[in-house]
Design brief:
Radius of gyration: 19 Å
Strand content: 25-35%
Length: about 220
Amino acid sequence: MQGADFHYYEPSSGHGLKHNPLNALIAPRPIGWISSRDGEGRVNLAPYSFFNAFNYDPPIIGFSGIAWKDSVRNASETREFVWNLVTRELGSQMNATSAPLPHGVDEFPIAGLTAVPGRLVNVPRVGESRAAMECKVIDIVQFRNTSGDKVNGWLVLGEVVAVYIDKLLIEDGVYQTAQALPIMRAGGLNDYVQVSPENVFQIMRLAGAASKEHHGA
């Protein structure tokens, strides 16, 4: 907005605010509720707010951690992980899995969740989640800064090899995102946003924009 009074900062010199605004500016963000297994067979479940989809064919999703945390470490050891959808009724249990527990501790029983064995990966999904995707790791990228120096951040990319969707969320062959009441990170320390049917609106796609070439098969 022309003429507005902007708070300007350069990240390398600090943001000058009470809380880093990056997470709040890029929001809401889908939650990567990632289950994984380490090389010794121990299971881990943790939420990641840096998560998204990156490709249609093959389907590729990814999450990133700001440290060599259990999910990243496990994915590097076994080359598998599962994404689980976080909905409103699972919010407290998702939050419980974010506790800083010792490596090797299984968050499933701590959060009161059911570990359902995977079909194509040796990693369980959250039985209470209404959608999940089994993934095989295709790449793990360590981030670098503008000087080319490696930093404490890793992006884990996985090809989706199996998908689970509660059939009650499918109408006329279309997955109903809002019907699941998914929640997303909204920045700040404790803020989340819930997607609900009354907040959904449509903007008609441009001619050809929804073709398979642009939108996947």
